[in-house]
Amino acid sequence: MENLYTYINHHTGLPEKSWQALIKVLTTRHYKKGEALLELGEVCTSIFFISKGYCRAVYDYEGQEINTNFYFETELVTNIRSLKLEQGSEYVIQAEEDLDAIVFNKDKLYALFSKSTDIDSMGRALMEGVLERQEAHAQLFKLDTARERYDYMRSIQPQIIERVPLEHIASYLGISRETLLSIHNTDQNK
Known about the structure:
190 residues; alpha+beta; four-stranded antiparallel sheet; 51% helix
């Protein structure tokens, strides 16, 4: 819980009394490699704070996996659309390593929002951060070159190169594996 406390205080701050109220509604969960945090078609009811391991958000498009994001330690992951609209998820969130997460249950969290303006403000600030990251990622695919997407990815998630298979990274960046290898090899030779 210490990493979560640090994460929250870095992004928004939370008085001790509110923190104590929050931790009472949090749970921890372990996921084995390959296990889904959120299944295709499942309504998302949680926000996950990754304590250990990493996961990916992946679509199945006509039998081809399309990776849309990777989430590592000290990051939040959820399907905001499914969480808010209570509609089935259009993608899977899957553990790619054994993963430990702190789970914010939506109903318990929303109940706290109505009791504490501090926790309500914290929730809004954290979700704004998630949305900002998603917007920055979407922006990559509007005008940026393959190289610019790769450089951005490395700047926000440097561990991705060491931990994620190249075919998943290529899918995430919307480039071929060969293009990714060319960019990666150019970096290695500098």
